[in-house]
């Protein structure tokens, strides 16, 4: 049996309110001092905090006492027009008309319009072993694109993981461009080690330098070495060299495997894991940054293309086009290994 609970902004107050509490799950609603609504979904292993009306960002996540979210100076989500205004979340939806870092010939915001979009509706569904937060948003512009985005976050019964999903439907009578990345900002794991079920040789170092990256001579020397031997960076042993960021790309993932699995292993014994279908996500990015203000080890960011902006994807032939009425679905499982 499935139970549906609609959510409305008026339900959210600064004092947390318990909406549901049973043997497997607990749901709390609250509002941050910044005014942004939040839902805390909890099971026996931990919790996830999701922003139901603000891009359906996953703001924070913790399982088995281990916080999975990047380190940043943000103490709470802040209202903004694009993701740079509130860059402290665990995960956000990058896209959908464009994503990634805009190049000089692009006009879209960093990581696209969906990251901070205001959702029209939000609701919970409860089943015996699944608790999900759903939402939808209709994007429409006069003389422009028209689509429906329907994201969801699902907490699994007794597992220390969640499912992040996105469904996109072109409501226009004209074709629609689509770029999408499930952008998960994992915590930095000191001396952590990467593993995945695709070859190490699949990764290539990003050699372009976006406008927000200010390279140092030491960083330029280090990345020049990595460009010729990218497999040399197989873990997080040198945080000082990840300032500014280091980025790797892997393309055409279906040639290696259909069900991809990427992991980040801690010397303390726990491991982060992300799984996805390469028929949905044909590309992956690895993004590493460690400085005084941000500490993030995004060991895999599943995507439809490289995050180098709309026009780069168009030129590379990796820009998806949705026909009128066409729909695409994406799903990622992520969290702690059991």
UniProtKB/TrEMBL annotation:
Pfam families: DUF4432
One function term, GO molecular function aspect: catalytic activity
Transmembrane annotation, as ranges: none
Matches recorded under InterPro entries: DUF4432 (IPR027839), Gal_mutarotase_sf_dom (IPR011013), GH-type_carb-bd (IPR014718)
Domain of life: Bacteria
GO BP: carbohydrate metabolic process
Protein name, per record: Aldose 1-epimerase family protein
Source organism: Winslowiella arboricola
